[in-house]
Design a protein that fits this description.
Layout: H1 6-34, H2 63-91, H3 95-120, H4 124-147, H5 150-154, H6 167-198, H7 221-230, H8 240-268, H9 275-300, H10 305-334, H11 340-349
Length: about 350
């Protein structure tokens, strides 16, 4: 079977469609959290006693709109993932890709259960796991879309682009290690951001780039008491732990931004670098700059729902870019180049 036949192209396009749907779902979840609408619909899997899919549109008002539409989008993504797994099993020949699609089904089922238990158990920690799994699930589906693409099959080895036993080979190794490390760091950063959102305590540090007018957070008991006394009566009180959480989130954002720019620039300087990889490296820089700007805007706008959700969106795209760059560089380093003489000999024997 040809590696670029119609069924495989359709599988790739469908996987891209599912990945986009997952991104929409993440944005929907961000709106739910930003509007603090996670408990707007108090039952699950029903909606106010109605079958989820039969809940009257006339009742989609306020926070109910955000929570109920999030459930509908999640259900749709679940069905799309099942179809993706079925298509992969029928069309794809590589067993590891089939396993990835099966893991995606397990992940989306687990994600749905976590979302439901978050409602029924009133457990914010489950909401945090729900948010983190969403990012991992998006990265997994995006990787499936990538490895089923025509580009994946044409990625050359480092031999083919003249990088073995050269300074470029060393740069390639360093870039791969850096991309993997940054992927882990960005995931931790997204988890910290989710923890901040799910604390529902508003902004623990209300100014940026300063911290209560200084460089370090005031976390003494007297300082915390004064901060809480100045907050609105409708706001939840903050703790030193919440302040440290946001402070670490800011510090890690700075470290990640510097390392992403440094790693991407190092990668862009490689000769014979493929156009799509060069584009991804440039996009990586752009995404991290936009992400820092959105983080600052989130503070300056007092956590405006649309800005905070855009911050979640760009964070997810930054993570996936890191994942795909890690996968691409690993393939270039591990892919064996078959000498043309051996290939001709094998063909003549066949």
């Amino acid at each position: 079977m040809s590696e670029i036949d119609l069924p495989k192209r359709l599988l790739h396009l469908y996987a891209v469609f599912v990945a986009v749907a997952v991104l929409v779902l993440i944005c929907s979840g961000g709106l739910v959290t930003s509007h603090e609408a996670g408990m707007a619909v108090p039952d699950w899997p029903n909606s106010f006693g109605y079958n989820m899919f039969l809940f009257p549109m006339s009742k989609w008002i306020g926070g109910i709109f955000y929570e109920h539409t999030h459930r509908l989008i999640a259900s749709t993504v679940g069905l799309l993932t099942l179809a993706l797994c079925a298509m992969t099993l029928m069309i794809e020949e590589r067993s590891w890709v089939k396993w990835m699609s099966a893991i995606a089904v397990l992940a989306v089922v687990t994600q749905g259960v976590l979302g439901g238990l978050r409602v029924t158990e009133h457990n914010q920690l489950l909401g945090l796991f729900h948010a983190c799994l969403a990012q991992g699930f998006f990265a997994l589906v995006a990787t499936i879309a990538f490895v089923t693409s025509p580009f994946w099959r044409t990625i050359p080895s480092r031999d083919a682009v003249g990088m073995r036993s050269t300074p470029s080979d060393t740069i390639l190794h360093k870039s791969r290690i850096s991309a993997i490390a940054l992927t882990l760091a960005i995931f931790v950063q997204l988890a910290l951001g989710a923890a901040m959102r799910h604390s529902h305590a508003g902004l623990s540090i209300p100014d940026y780039p300063t911290v209560y007018g200084g460089l370090f957070p005031p976390v003494s008991a007297d300082a915390i008491a004064k901060i809480n006394a100045a907050r609105s009566a409708t706001q939840q009180p903050i703790t030193s732990g919440l302040i440290w959480l946001q402070y670490i989130h800011r510090f890690l954002a700075l470290c990640i931004s510097i390392e992403v720019i440094r790693s991407a620039v190092r990668l862009l300087r490689l000769p014979n670098l493929l156009g799509p990889i060069r584009f991804a490296a440039g996009g990586w820089i752009a995404l991290v700059i936009v992400q820092v700007a959105l983080g600052a805007w989130t503070v300056w706008s007092n956590k405006a729902a649309d800005i905070a959700t855009a911050h979640v969106l760009v964070g997810a795209l930054t993570l996936v870019t890191s994942v795909l760059l890690s996968v691409t560089l690993s393939r270039m380093l591990w892919k064996a180049e078959v000498p043309i003489g051996q290939l001709n000999h094998a063909v003549s024997r066949a």
